[in-house]
Write a structure and sequence with these properties.
Helix content: 10-25%
CATH superfamily of the domain at 606-714: TonB-dependent receptor, plug domain
Number of strands: 45
Keywords: Receptor, Signal
CATH architecture of the domain at 606-714: Beta Complex
Oligomer: single chain
Radius of gyration: 31 Å
Protein name: TonB-dependent receptor plug domain-containing protein
InterPro entries: Plug_dom_sf
Structural class: mainly beta
């Protein structure tokens, strides 16, 4: 997908030297706008198309900048609102490998038909909020609506879009139209365009999904009205927008490897329309510029080479001699370069109750990619409103709504391309504010982009530079509550009083007790201010367009409601009131689960890892160090303990070195090899990738936790210590996927999962480009739907859908 967006200055022979200088200035301004103020786009994948109250929505966000994954931002924000815009939950997640993952639990008492998802970065808030990600997620209520409710009657509306922006008198203009219901569903219409003298001047008939086009040459003194009928035969009249008495028009035609343009002016057009400039941009970058003269002839044509452009929306703008934009048209360039096509199949298929299946993803040409996988009951259907390809190439760059946009990427036939051009004619891009760019006025940045993760940092106020000249020490105790382990941190203060622990990523709400080492006088006169990065306000954000449409047939809704009712039945059983005495049924946690809850936090909780209870393992006492203990105990982890002293080349996983952590702080391997095993309580070895590591953790991680005394576990910090409460990233939880091949108390429960498997973070590398995913069927599903989406390092997109029945 990544192609060089070249700049072609096509100066026609009749262009004056003065205009060349003007073009160079404009080119500089466009380059500055694109290079210094690039804009991000977001797409979010969800594990299934709809949910019920009490269920968890699992999601993955992909961030793009231009044609490549975006590395502008480090933090991703999500607001979940009800249909009235009231914020139900505000989330903030770390961005790793240009993506973020999370989940949202729909309240069991929720009565709305949808929840609305807003997704954005702080950097995106500086620009047009119409381009922030938004989506309506359908919520299926357990009790269907009563049959005696009269369905709402919607009247369609029709809009007209002269090509280039305005119809001009005396010029034969193409006029596109779009007829839709208030719900966003297209309406097929048929009728005529009639002038004020009652004469039919054009036919009006839908070509595709409520859209169509006709030719019209406005005449002075005439007005025009559309008389049309909708699908039910109801008659309507709609006035067309008034034509301009003077001006120019811009016509576009897409042919192989180029976009042709035709510019016309009417006879009465003033001089400013006789020397014009054509500018074409893609993702804010200049790809074409040419000056044209219409002083001799009223019509001129040209073409824009597109063979070396990336696929996407090309914005063609026509300027008058004063560099005022007078016409604009967007067009889709499809060079078929955006697809990443992995092979997706099954090594084993078992549709029986709790049968084991193995999905295999094979990446072509050893490409590196970031993928997400959802496997659901086939009866849930598929969300046809948008997908990763249609959103990142099309709808993410449009302000208007598009009905079933994935259709336009289902094939490359001429018919589909003609239908896609109707979408271009009836929507506006308008990311660039031309009046400001031409004037050299750059965007005002109100929200600096997040360049660092939410880590523990701040400043000590009240201390003089002489107080800190010898290097002060700030002692901190991090306390997340009675059920979590506490951490003690020592941070050196700089001479200006600031401190920073960039490797300590903050999750959830944490109380930080603190004191400054040194004299009591220094402690008494100082105040500590903590800063982990403030997320944007959770006040409602109002968008310029309505939420994405959702489509669901009756069979899909019935299947979703069936699963929801069954889950509600199981939840009621789990409440566990029995006989006269009330007995609360709770799942007994294993020793390893208790250890994990006690010692881990954030991205270190749960996960795909091998766990070791060192304190209760007698064999650990015979181990020389941590590495000799792990040797041969973890499949795929290669340890040559004799070669690890002073280096890391003795530990490898998937051809690389894993990350090392001590009490969740990054350390060098030498710190682990020098530890006495008697001080170790718990070891957790994460299989690749581990997203708690910086850089994506493609080679996994080894996390070591030291023994903690009971007094530290059970007693809080001294009441005399001051504390501040700080907010970090939203806590991450793990999707539960049962393993019926192992002993687990949960395996005795009924299995009525509608989502059988969800993995939002699968990283492929050149060494590890074949991924095998085992998963188990539930008790009732007789068919699977597999959806794989993702982005390669080069920005190519993939979406693979497999139906197994």
């Amino acid at each position: 997908m990544q192609k060089f967006l070249f700049v072609l200055i096509a100066l026609l022979p009749f262009l004056a030297q003065a205009q060349v200088l003007d073009q160079q200035k404009v080119k500089t301004n466009i380059d500055q706008n694109g290079n210094y103020f690039p804009q991000e786009r977001v797409y979010m994948q969800f594990d299934k198309p709809a949910y019920a109250p009490g269920e968890t929505i699992w999601y993955k966000a992909y961030l793009m900048m231009g044609t490549e994954p975006s590395f502008i931002s480090t933090n991703y924000y999500v607001d979940i609102t009800d249909p009235n815009g009231n914020v139900l939950k505000h989330y903030i997640m770390p961005i790793v490998e240009a993506s973020a993952k999370g989940s949202f639990d729909i309240p069991t008492t929720y009565t709305g038909k949808t929840v609305h998802v807003h997704g954005y970065t702080r950097w995106m808030m500086n620009f047009d909020t119409a381009f922030l990600y938004e989506r309506d997620i359908r919520v299926v209520q357990l009790k269907p609506a009563a049959n005696n409710i009269t369905p709402a009657t919607y009247k369609p509306v029709i809009q007209f879009f002269p090509e280039g922006g305005d119809a001009v008198m005396g010029i034969n203009n193409k006029v596109a139209f779009k007829a839709i219901y208030p719900t966003g569903k297209p309406c097929a219409v048929k009728g005529n365009i009639i002038n004020n003298k009652g004469k039919v001047v054009a036919d009006l008939i839908t070509q595709h999904d409520g859209m169509g086009a006709f030719m019209l040459e406005p005449v002075a003194g005439e007005t025009y009205t559309a008389k049309w009928k909708d699908e039910s035969g109801a008659a309507f009249e709609t006035a067309l927008p008034a034509a301009k008495t003077q001006g120019v028009t811009l016509e576009i035609k897409v042919v192989k490897d180029k976009v042709g343009f035709l510019i016309k002016r009417n006879e009465t057009a003033p001089d400013k329309f006789k020397k014009l400039n054509v500018v074409a941009t893609m993702q804010q970058h200049l790809v074409y510029m040419a000056g044209v003269k219409l002083d001799v002839a009223p019509i001129i044509g040209g073409s824009i080479p597109t063979a070396d452009l990336a696929s996407g929306i090309l914005q063609v703008t026509l300027f008058d001699s004063n560099w005022v934009a007078v016409a604009e048209r967007i067009v889709f360039v499809n060079n078929n370069d955006y697809l990443l096509e992995p092979e997706v199949g099954f090594a084993a298929i078992n549709l029986n109750k709790r049968g084991k299946n193995t999905l295999v993803i094979s990446m072509p040409d050893l490409q590196q990619a970031n993928l997400s996988v959802s496997i659901t009951d086939a009866g849930l259907g598929i969300d046809s409103s948008d997908d990763i390809i249609s959103h990142l190439l099309l709808t993410g760059d449009l302000k208007g709504r598009v009905y079933k946009p994935s259709y336009y990427f289902s094939d490359t036939t001429d018919t589909i391309q003609q239908h896609l051009d109707l979408v271009m004619l009836t929507n506006g891009w308008r990311r660039i504010k031309w009046d400001e760019v031409i004037a050299g006025k750059m965007p005002v940045i109100k929200y600096p982009n997040d360049t660092a993760y939410l880590s523990l940092s701040g400043k000590v106020f009240g201390a003089t530079s002489s107080d800190l000249s010898t290097g002060g020490l700030l002692l901190m105790i991090l306390d997340k509550g009675k059920d979590s382990a506490r951490k003690t941190i020592q941070s050196f203060l700089k001479k200006d009083g600031t401190f920073s622990e960039p490797n300590l990523i903050m999750f959830d709400t944490t109380k930080v007790y603190y004191r400054i080492a040194g004299s009591q006088n220094l402690a008494d006169k100082t105040e500590v201010a903590f800063n982990v990065g403030m997320p944007p306000s959770t006040r409602p954000i109002f968008f310029d367009k309505n939420g994405a449409l959702y489509f669901m047939d009756s069979a899909t809704e019935y299947r979703l409601r069936y699963f929801a009712l069954e889950q509600a039945r199981l939840a009621k059983l789990a409440e566990g009131a029995t006989l006269a005495a009330v007995t609360v049924k709770a799942k007994t946690k294993s020793k390893l689960e208790i250890l994990d809850d006690t010692y881990t936090s954030g991205l270190f909780s749960g996960g795909n890892a091998t766990q070791f209870d060192i304190a209760n393992d007698p064999s650990s006492r015979a181990a020389q160090n941590i590495l000799t203990y792990l040797q041969g105990r973890v499949a795929g982890l290669q340890i040559n303990a004799s070669s690890t002293v002073g280096g890391t080349n003795g530990v490898t996983w998937r051809g690389g070195t894993p990350s090392f952590f001590l009490d969740e702080m990054p350390v060098d391997i030498s710190q682990l090899t020098s530890m006495n095993m008697s001080t170790v309580a718990y070891i957790k070895v994460f299989q690749p990738p581990f997203f708690g590591s910086f850089g994506g953790g493609a080679n996994g991680a080894i996390a070591v936790y030291t023994q903690r005394g009971s007094s530290q576990q059970n007693n809080g910090p001294s009441r005399s210590l001051p504390y501040k409460q700080i907010i970090g990233y939203t806590g991450q939880k793990e999707f539960y996927s049962p393993n019926y091949g192992s002993f687990d108390q949960r395996n005795d429960e009924e299995d009525l999962r509608s989502t059988l498997y969800w993995n939002p973070m699968i990283l492929t590398t050149r060494e590890n480009h074949i991924i095998k995913i085992p998963f188990y069927n539930n008790d009732i599903t007789q068919g699977f739907r597999v959806i794989v989406e993702g982005v390669s390092k080069q920005g190519q997109l993939t979406r693979v859908v497999k139906l197994i029945e």
